[in-house]
Hints:
Blueprint: H1 23-38, E1 42-46, E2 49-54, H2 58-74, E3 79-84, E4 91-96, H3 101-112
Amino acid sequence: MMTGETRPVKESPIACDMSAIEPGLRAAHVATGGRVFRAAEEIREFPDGYAFRLTGDAGTLSRVAEFIALKRLCCPFLGFALEVEPEGGPVWLRLTGREGVKAFIREEVGELLGGANLPMSSEAIPGSLLSPIGSVRASFPSAPLFGAMPKWMKLSQ
């Protein structure tokens, strides 16, 4: 949020409302989300959410922008930050929000990663997974992602 701006008063429920996305775009949105998070090379935990390091290629940047454009419709309580490092460096996607949103991110992204768990706190992360600056390096299954829809997502018409 820019300095001097006030926070919006409205607080949406912390729940994904896929009906906010056009029916013809829903399955593609879920697939794009899976591709974005399976490509994460590093995950960093913050008090209000997570950051995901992705490759800096143009395809990744396009997928992340597409993901954000639709995700903000079905999950208006999420905050998004996109950082593109210079010299062809990585792209960082940060998902944040108010109290309760971090647990939602952990569950939703875990489902997109085929049940992998995101870190809950630095104390809960085995030392071998920590990088010197406290980030998590993780590998995720590359198995087909969408045999069944995640339990938090309903593709109602």
